[in-house]
Amino acid sequence: MNHNLLEVKNLKTYFFTRNGVVQAVDGVNLALRKGENLCLVGESGCGKTATALSILRLIDSPPGKILGGEILFHDEDLLRCPEERLRQIRGREIAMIFQDPQSSLNPVFTVGDQIAEPLKLHLKLNSKEALERARELMEQVGIPQADERMKDYPHQFSGGMKQRVMIAAALSCDPEILIADEPTTALDTTIKAQILDIFHDLKQARNMSILFITHDMGTVAGIADRIVVMYGGKIAEVGTTFDIFDQPAHPYTQGLLTCLPNISAQQQRLTPIPGTIPSLIDPPSGCIFHPRCPKRMPICDQEDPPEVFISDEHRVVCQLYKQPVTSPGKTGDTHSAQ
Amino acid sequence: MTEKKSGQISDRFGGRRNLVFFSGLLALVAVILLDIYLEAQILEPMGYFYIFFALVATCYALYPLYVNRRLTRYYWERTRRHRLSVLGLAFIIFLIAVALIGPLLTPDPTKVNFDKKNTPPVGFTIQQSVFDTKTDQLVSRETPGTWQHPLGTDEKGRDMLAMLVSGARVSLQVGLLATLMAIFIGALMGVMSAYLGGWWDNALMRFTDVMMTFPFFLLLVFIIFIFGPSLAFIILAIGLTGWTGTARLVRSETLSLRTREFVMASKSLGASGARIIFRHLMPNVISSIIVIATLSIPGIILAEAALSFIGLGDPTVTSWGVVLNAGQRSLDTAWWVAVEPGIMLFLTVLAFNFLGDGIRDAFDPRSQQ
């Protein structure tokens, strides 16, 4: 079942700021399959959120601009379809959850109204039906006493509960794809675990495709089917969860994993990746990771690194693996980065 | 249980509120067009204003307050803490009652009776020269105040109480209707300017600047010169020029709201630009709008009084400014003619200001005590 529900091809999203052009997303290719949980991982500022926002064309313009590429959803290019059509897709077929539950809800409406809004908008339900459905959704995402609580305002909810409300609103029209932009970053560890459980159940119960964005490798290990590692607006490595955690190929992925505390290893200190993320206004030449890379070679700052397939599901963009490997050409991920 | 039931019913109507409002508006426009076509004068121009005001007030002020009783009670509790604002509110309610039913109980404010001229208010007695028809001579006679004219009469013998009651009606008309108009335009300009941003923001705000620097009184005089001194045009003129402050305030509030994630979130759920402006941004700035509306009413009432005072008001209506103007000419013989409307203006302006302060404190979460 290698059916690609959503394909991002050679996406370029730049921000035109006063200081220069920020190449936030520079030639990203990825594919989301039916019913899978794809995790987009990387440090802050590596273009994860910009990629997610570009998919629904929510980039603030100005200063942002999607300069090129294709985003195919059911063979329809979202970057070229009219605004009207896009509004029908947003919330109905592709829904999104944001990082900060504190500010993602409108403070002057009851949460019931806010969950019901997309239902009225897309499914044309009347208020009564929509509110009834909203109540069911609130129960599904684990909000106790949904009857009473749907009449409350967002400030009467805790952060975790607000995030549940956001999830309920995003799920209301039963979308095919859910994009979750760091939905657990602003939450406590225990609440985070509960929210992750909701995502897990969702995938099981609804066969929903989830694009989960996070910077936390620990979170990723628990929920992802496949992982995309991003660095500096470009993709570094793509693979199944097993590939990435067991045989990380890219030096950056290896670095990320050594930052994780490991229970089995008798290790006293974690090893951070030296240096900081590069400026995306004036990125380093060649491989964008070369200034921080422990396995740097002379060629790294000369040439753009090639995309190499280690296996069908596992590809890496790095000079280390430069060898004649024929690409299988079966999945949508085979598009070259150049 | 009952609360739940009423909640459901109210929700069913909540969605229809806009429908009711716009169908009402459409019907009103139809009647106005019919009026123009038939030249029938079904209602005087002010009548249409009243119906419009009542429509807006019912749909967007009274109805939500009724539906959301919990919130209404909360705001009332907070406003009540401000003693003076409750006093102000009481005075305004009294004034509205007077303006609505007063004219039915008082004599015609335009009825002239020279025999009764310059009668002082009850409890006062003045010496005034009266032309005695028997002796054909001016005699100095003592004139006591009578209960027939509790607030006295002016130099033409018109009843002061009747004139003040009529003036209350005019002042409230001008204050409420012009404010409503100004606030509506201002809020729309502000929210649109902030939400659309870029080129639109620049264009709308520069237009606001131009309107702001334009001498308001000159414009009024100009409009009155062209269209004649009618109360409807005075209200229109004040309403169409008085929105600039609101626009700026609403714009700055919206600018900070716009960056909040809920705007992006509702966009990601498929809301259109218009929906975000009217359903998500407008309700968030409504509390500041109510405060600025309450605080701008007194200024507008004073503007009308000032216009009438300098003789540019509607000559067919008896407003406080007109009475004040008449009174200042006879200040030495009949002080009450000028003092009484002055006191009324003073109290009204004060009442609205107190109420505005109270509402502002109630809506401001930072004033939590």
Describe the protein in words:
The complex is a heterodimer of chains A (338) and B (369). Chain A has 338 residues and is of the alpha/beta class. Chain A is built from ten helices and twelve strands. In chain A, strand 4 and strand 5 form a beta hairpin. In chain A, helix 3 packs parallel to helix 6 and helix 4 packs across helix 6. Chain B contains 14 helices and two strands, in the order αααααββααααααααα. In chain B, a hairpin with a 4-residue loop joins strand 1 and strand 2. Chain B has a two-stranded antiparallel sheet. Chain B is mostly helical and 369 residues long. Chains A and B meet through helix 2, helix 3, helix 4 and helix 6 of A and helix 1, helix 11 and helix 12 of B.
Provide key terms for this protein.
heterodimer; A: 338 residues; alpha/beta; Rossmann fold; eight-stranded mixed beta sheet; four-stranded antiparallel beta sheet; B: 369 residues; mainly alpha; MetI-like fold; 14 helices; 2 strands; disordered N terminus
